[in-house]
Amino acid sequence: MRLAPLSLLIVALLLSGCRPQRSGKVIARVGDAELTLEEAKTHIDTTHTPSGYSLNDYVSYWVNTELLYQEAKRQGVEDSEEFTRQLQDVRRQLAGQTFLERTVYSDTAELTPDAIQQYFNRHVGEFRVRENTLKLNLIALNSRDRANTFAAALAQGAGWKTAVDNLLNDSAAAPSVLSVTPGKYCTSQTLFPPELWKVASALSVNEVSFPVKTAGGYFVLQSLAQLPEGSAAEFELARSEARQRLLIESRRRRYDDLLGTLRRKSDVEVMMDPHRTADTAHAHE
Question: Can you give the pLDDT at residue 21?
Answer without folding.
Answer: 54
